[in-house]
Amino acid sequence: MKELICIVCPRGCRLTVNENNDYAVTGNSCKRGEVYGKAEVTAPVRVVTSTVRVLQDGRVPSRDRAVRCPVKTSDAIPKGLIFDAVKAIEAASVKPPVRIGDVIIPHICGTQADLVATKNII
Ligand code: SF4
Predict the structure, then answer these.
(1) pTM
(2) Domain with 38 in it
């Protein structure tokens, strides 16, 4: 049995997932909690949010003048790939202008998710 808190909505139901009974979920108040509980125990995924460096005049700015562009993965990626994704994000940079939804890293870490901008940078 695994116990976890459902993070799909603010209600935060306490879930129990029974690995010995086809990952049956109890404690959920709705179907989304059942889906989340099973996935969290069998193949956990997360949306990754971060920022990437913004180049100024085509160059990396000094730290005190650094501007960062907020980004997120377009879909959840396997939890085991999060550190690799963070490394790829840290190595990335963008050149303005950047529009919300622009793909910064396609298929990040070989997944179906793209890393996309979540703010306009002009
Ligand atoms: S089980 Fe349903 S109601 Fe409960 S926290 Fe998850 S999404 Fe919200």
Answers:
(1) 0.81
(2) 2-43
